[in-house]
Amino acid sequence: MTASSRPGPPRLRRSAGDRRAQLVQIGLELLPTTPVQELTIDEVARRAGISRSLLFHYFANKREYYTAVTRAAADLLLDHLLPEPGTPAEQQVTGMLDRYVGWVETFPETYLAFVRGAGGGDPWVSEVYEETRGRLVQVALTTLDLPDDALRRQLVLAWFAFTEDLVGSWVQEPTVTRAELLDLLRDVLDRLVARG
Fold first, then answer.
1. H helix runs in 41-143, sequence order
2. Which residue, 44, 69, 94, sits at the end of a domain?
3. pLDDT of residue 44
4. Cα 38–116–31 angle (5° rounding)?
5. Domains in the chain, number
6. Distance CA 61, CA 52 (A)
7. CA-to-CA distance for 92 and 96, rounded, in angstroms?
8. Which of 90, 106, 131, 137 is buried deepest, with most CB atoms within 10 A?
9. Which of 68, 67, 94, 66 lies closest to 81 in space, CA to CA?
10. What is the pLDDT of residues 17-62, one digit of tens each?
11. How many CB atoms lie within 10 A of CB 4?
12. Domain holding 92: CATH number?
């Protein structure tokens, strides 16, 4: 038996969960340069070393795959934004805002595609987007030690909409310094919740 005819090491078979996680991870790796709606299944399958049809063994269709990638990206964003345990309350909101602006600066196209996809009526993006916003509202209410009532939820949700729009346009055309932007966002939030 020659060296070239010897069998290689046995290939490890991935469990269905491991394979799904691998495919979602590939989607996440592509997101910084490619909005989720533009990910090609052929490219994802090629990077995973599987056929396109095998990818659809793990995800029923493109929408299910895109939803899984979008949800994983939203979870990463939330993990990135949430304050470290033990952070003083006053620093939590400011730190969250700073990390949020940094995220949008780092991934502007992906971020805008996410926000516009939700606003444009893509139901699978909208669902993940609303879940993410709801979790952020809850974190803000808890951090600011505000009652969780309908009025305050509406106010904080409106502030998130304002923040998304302002930060998205600021990244494309900075009209104030980053520090001034953060101060403005915090000031608007403080004024809104004080009225509640």
1. 41-48, 52-58, 62-81, 89-106, 108-119, 123-143
2. 69
3. 94
4. 35
5. 2
6. 11
7. 6
8. 137
9. 94
10. 888 999 999 998 888 777 777 889 999 999 999 999 999 999 999 8
11. 5
12. 1.10.357.10
**Does 134 lie in the same domain as 42?**
no
Q: How far apart are CA 83 and CA 106, in angstroms?
A: 19
Task: Tell me which amino acid residue 51 is.
Answer: S
The pTM of the full predicted model, rounded to 2 decimals, is 0.74
What tokens were used for 167? 């930060």
Residue 171: its pLDDT value, please? 92
Give 50's DSSP letter: S
Q: How many residues does the chain have?
A: 196
55 and 138 housed in the same domain: no
Do 168 and 110 touch, CB atoms closer than 8 A?
no
> Span 100-106, mean pLDDT?
90
The whole domain housing 59 covers 13-69
Does residue 11 surpass a pLDDT of 60? no
Could you give the CA distance from residue 39 to residue 138 in angstroms, rounded to a whole number? 31
d(CA 22, CA 27): 9
Contact 182, 97 (CB under 8 A): yes
- Whole-angstrom CA distances from 27 to 63, 70, 139 are 13, 9, 27
Long-range pairs for 13-22 at CB < 8 Å and ≥24 separation?
Answer: 16/58, 19/48, 19/50, 19/58, 20/58, 20/59, 20/68, 22/48
Q: 151: which 2 tokens?
A: 């009025």
